[in-house]
Design a protein that fits this description.
heterodimer; A: 261 residues; Fumarate Reductase Iron-sulfur Protein, Chain B, domain 2; 2 domains; B: 638 residues; alpha+beta; Flavocytochrome C3, Chain A, domain 1; binds flavin-adenine dinucleotide; binds FE2/S2 (inorganic) cluster
Chain lengths: 261, 638
Amino acid sequence: MKFTLCVWRQLNSDEPGSMVSYEVDGVSEDMSFLEVLDLLNENLVVRGEEPIAFDHDCREGICGMCALVINGVPHGPEPVTTACQLHMRKFTDGQTITVEPWRAAAFPVIRDLVVDRRSLDRVIQAGGFVSVNTGSAPDANALPISKDAADRAFEAAACIGCGACVAACPNASASLFVAAKVAQFAALPQGQPERLQRAIHLVEAMDREGFGGCTNHYECEAVCPKGIPVSFIAHLNRDFLKAALMSREVRDVPPAVEAEE
Amino acid sequence: MSILDGKVPGGPIETKWSNYRVDMKLISPTNKRKLRVIVVGSGLAGASAAASLAELGYQVDCFCFQDSPRRAHSVAAQGGINAAKNYQNDGDSVRRLFYDTVKGGDFRAREANVYRLAEISNSIIDQCVAQGVPFARDYGGLLDNRSFGGAQVSRTFYARGQTGQQLLLGCYGALSRQIGLGKVQMHSRVEMLDLVVVEGKARGIITRHLVSGRIARWAADAVVLATGGYGNVFYLSTNAMGCNVTATYRAYKRGAYFANPCFTQIHPTCIPVAGEHQSKLTLMSESLRNDGRIWVPVQPDETRAAADIPEAERDYFLERKYPAFGNLAPRDISSRAAKEVCDEGRGVGKLGRGVYLDFSDALARLGKGSIAGRYGNLFEMYEKITGENPYQRPMRIYPASHYTMGGLWVDYNLMSNIEGLHVLGEANFSDHGANRLGASALMQGLADGYFIIGDTLGNYLGSAELAEVDINHAAFADAENSVRAGIKRLLEVNGRRSVDSFHRELGNIMWEYCGMSRNAQGLRKAIDLIAELREQFWREVRVPGTNESFNVALENAGRVADFLEFAQLLCYDALSRDESCGAHFREEHQTPEGEAERNDEAFSYVSAWQFTGVGSEPIQHKEPLSFDNVALATRSYK
Ligand SMILES: Cc1cc2nc3c(=O)[nH]c(=O)nc-3n(C[C@H](O)[C@H](O)[C@H](O)COP(=O)(O)OP(=O)(O)OC[C@H]3O[C@@H](n4cnc5c(N)ncnc54)[C@H](O)[C@@H]3O)c2cc1C
Ligand code: FES
């Protein structure tokens, strides 16, 4: 197979970028999309050009590192599939394929197809966890949790933090990402003590980082490689409203208070 | 050669750890705040260590090369994590988990470490559940378990096929909390390129920022490496693309001993290579062998499709050779048998490197519904990758490099022979001996990070005499200069070959001569071939661009350059271990039936290697192993 790849090239965050076309020949249908980029990069290097920078690591759809907008769609045409799990048999020989980075104010481009997603980490740092120190846990079976609740928590926890939801959203909102984290802990008894603070702290952090709000476009759900449903956003909104109605003192408890000796 | 002391505390094995903890030096909270610890790695081992040390009050700097700590390779683990909870009341206990792990490691691990691991396993599950890790549960709301990797008890906790992800997100949450509180400084996309040793103690590291290329010095009171395994020395493996040996190898070059590098695990059920551009291999759960039958055509160079080959012309080689275990023969035996039939020209698939894993009998017996119930997601994944529907035609599988038991040598405190350098998780050699049991790597990483390092590092810092050292010390300048020189050298070769092409070639050499089975002649040949390839690399590699930018080619070149040196060490170790044990199969040492012959008289020790120079033979040190709590046994699968 043979393809024309139109790829976003940008030296660094200060320089403007542009689309550059490359021909790639000798592609087999068993190759993954990232292996086609590897092949193109080998050709570039041998010619003395710098390879196209793109993020990837596990190539199994679980680490959330790969982040490509392929033909206008985050992670490409195959539903519930990360870019690294996409294979060339899903394309037609001779096709032109565009490849761009995630685009969002909260994800500045680092180089070519690589963006800075640390904003998502900072959202989690604002309270996306259960505050429990090592060694202080009771026996794991002391507190039964219904299978339903555990399954619901798992469904939310399956988020790989890739940011496709942000890239797909016209408002560049991270609501699905935040909602999934809030929903995971809301489903479990361990998550209850900090439940409302968590919702408010995460939403505030999301705003601070420059992500937009949710206006129900549902593009996030359509591109999520893990199939996380938008219904979690409604739950997030409920918890957020409840928290907003609480008195300031309760609301403003910092995400975790450490006892200084 | 010297004899190494594992510093195992005295007393009965059951109370060693608890008694030892009582005697440890403690540091007051005020003093802890003045102590700085570097943790390299944010996988299960690194993230749990960084979070726990920060909770204790230390100032922690944590590093990873991915863009976020949540993406460390641990995220990809599928099957589960062991613990001796005995929730199923099926006779499990700390002692049994200990015994199974020592036996699984073919009696090449340090007993006391393994016992402690089994002991701690239960606290890990408690900790993870408290963090909100959504483990699988039964209808009564209690935790579910499954039996894994041939264990006779159900002791494996799991979260669908994503246990590693869920455990890592638990660690990542704990780490994020400490970052938010300002107790951990997180440095992502920053790669450690050297260890700084001052007066015999690890006192810092040199890093390169992968975005800006900035080279920086970091000083600390202790350094913890949790940088994962080196399975990518085979190029193709089930590991993530970025997994590499650089951190541990460069520590080795600074004097840390590398233990048992030849203990590498090959997993029998991976999706075979599809073509020359293959970049990694995907693991298919071993559980598939419960219902699938493994076969190849009787005739070499068979061209017919699987369905057109009549029963009489199929060779169910595992069932034939190992009638008692059949398709469930252990990982190493199944892997070697598959390689053998492919070497005879009977392999299937385009490249002839694969064997069929056929579900047609099971489908006929149980129906599509129940097969889908058991393996539906795996079948889907297989189809996504190969484009073939395993309900209609047999899967093709082949062994691949999966896990590395070897790593930097550490004593019972998880400290290497360089004082103040602690090594955790897959990066150390400590608990799995010559082979690792399924679901025990996750357990080890979390035991090291959550429950061991906090105590042993405190004990070290509480008793060590630490001179005032900052980044202006000559040792930092020296290490920084050597890092800069290495980068400059890579950029200046200006040849015509890509870094990947060398990595691929190295992988082929390793797979051929130091893979599933090894012999002295092949290993000697590999040592020479690697040396030649390395010379060629330094003559012909092309690394475009500059240091002062986001340069993926440069990043990768440094890692492959280290693999090209490390691979020789691995072969030297394999050559010197003139016995078959665990995953290390020396063709010279097998029974007429092809079973491994261990030699406890001569080889009941850990090999720990000391660097002597690139390309020159390393010096071997030995830690003798004694087994006072288990009886040495030989396995038999006939
Ligand atoms: C496909 C697959 C499935 C598996 N399934 C299971 C299972 O079911 N059960 C089980 O017990 N085990 C399983 N394993 C094994 C297990 O996942 C690993 O052994 C374990 O997760 C390793 O954890 P770690 O913390 O030691 O290292 P890793 O998770 O590999 O983390 C290494 C960290 O070090 C960082 N790092 C490395 N080098 C540098 C450097 N030079 N500078 C800065 N940072 C660096 C990386 O960024 C990363 O953060 C599986 C492995 C694979 C490949
Ligand atoms: S590379 Fe890990 S999800 Fe794609």
